[in-house]
């Protein structure tokens, strides 16, 4: 088991281990939490791990209520939250009752939103079960539900009390979801950690085979990158924006394909390819580093081109990104593997040239 400390909110630990779900109840008692708990899980994850987690909490003395939600991004909504507020009220949760999110980023974002707002904030425990959630969405305190007008429009910054990652849960994760998580790991490596990039390149086959030792190291190091960034800029006033590497183009691809054709990480992979090419064209990134980034993304089974999308339409879709401020599109571009910065004022023709390479 490894631990990464996050100095945000009251401060919390990210625990990374294997076969640790049974120990969750005891860990919550050690955090002084009592004596009722609400576990939020979706139908898919419940079948694998719901009973194990609820049993662990009950053994530690918690009176456990478990609320099972349908599986899917389309349920990360206010009506789902309303149902969970009812469950919290029925369970008579009080200020020391933990709300436990057991699942991927969808469950974590929704449960976190409920924990942040019910009684103006209850202790929130993240038990992430996708690679993406373990290295990205469970850390840093962004919680939200979607609105018809856009993703994650209604939300807050609300830090968890504990993040409890059990790598064994990744054994049941569909392979495509594992690859989606790999995109965020490669992103972390490119923006802030050249050694991590080398580690991923060297260990990729064993990581993709979900072997314990390389996964332990990958998840721990990747969590450390995200932690370092969010600690410096909790509410995204500046530095945190570098976590959007690949996301400006990625969101445009998702938007144009109706969020159906590509998983989020696949769209981010295309975005990282386009941003790296643009950085190289502008003379910011060396051709060698550009080639290495794109080669690693492709080796991880993620797309780097061939979308068949119309470049002009994709360019127009960029303007819808919620990170566009006063009509100015910001791009996170790598300066080298391990270092990235936010750029604006890039000419339309330069952007289009990069876009064409993924179309
Ligand atoms: N809060 C943040 O900072 C942040 C960052 C990135 C993404 N997000 C959000 O995260 C969400 C995406 O998260 P995700 O990729 O984890 O998707 P997800 O939560 O939909 O999980 C993907 C699929 O895997 C299944 N699953 C989860 N764990 C499993 C396991 N161990 N075994 C078998 N199946 C399992 C789920 O039921 C689902 O079908 C989006 O809503 C996105 O907006 C939030």
In brief, what are we looking at here?
By secondary structure, the protein is α/β, with parallel strands linked by helices.
What key phrases describe this protein's structure?
alpha/beta; Rossmann fold; two-stranded antiparallel ribbon; 2 domains; Dehydroquinate synthase-like, alpha domain; binds nicotinamide-adenine-dinucleotide; 359 residues; seven-stranded mixed β-sheet
Secondary structure elements and their pairing?
Elements: E1 2-6, E2 12-17, H1 24-30, E3 36-42, H2 43-59, E4 63-69, H3 78-90, E5 99-103, H4 105-117, E6 124-128, H5 131-137, E7 142-147, E8 150-157, E9 162-166, H6 175-192, H7 194-208, H8 212-232, H9 247-256, H10 264-281, H11 287-299, H12 311-318, E10 331-336, E11 339-343, H13 348-356
Parallel strand pairs: 2-9, 3-4, 3-5, 5-6, 6-9
Antiparallel strand pairs: 1-2, 7-8, 10-11
Helix pairs in contact: 1-2, 3-4, 5-6, 5-8, 6-7, 6-8, 6-10, 7-8, 9-10, 9-12, 10-11, 10-13, 12-13
What is the radius of gyration?
Answer: 20 Å
Alpha plus pi helix count: 13
Percentage of residues in helical conformation = 40-55%
Q: What's the shape?
A: globular
Percent strand equals: 15-25%
Order of helices and strands: EEHEHEHEHEHEEEHHHHHHHEEH
Q: What small molecules does the structure contain?
A: nicotinamide-adenine-dinucleotide
Strand line-up of the largest beta sheet: 1-2-9-6-5-3-4
How does the helix and strand content classify structurally? Answer: alpha/beta
Uncertain residue ranges: none
- How many domains make up the coordinates? 2
Averaging pLDDT over every residue, what do you get? Answer: 96
CATH architecture of the largest domain: Up-down Bundle
> Which superfamily, in CATH terms, is the homologous superfamily of the largest domain?
Dehydroquinate synthase-like - alpha domain
Number of strands: 11
Largest sheet: 7 strands, mixed
Please give the alpha-carbon distance between the first and last residues: 43 Å
What is the CATH fold-level name of the largest domain? Dehydroquinate synthase-like, alpha domain
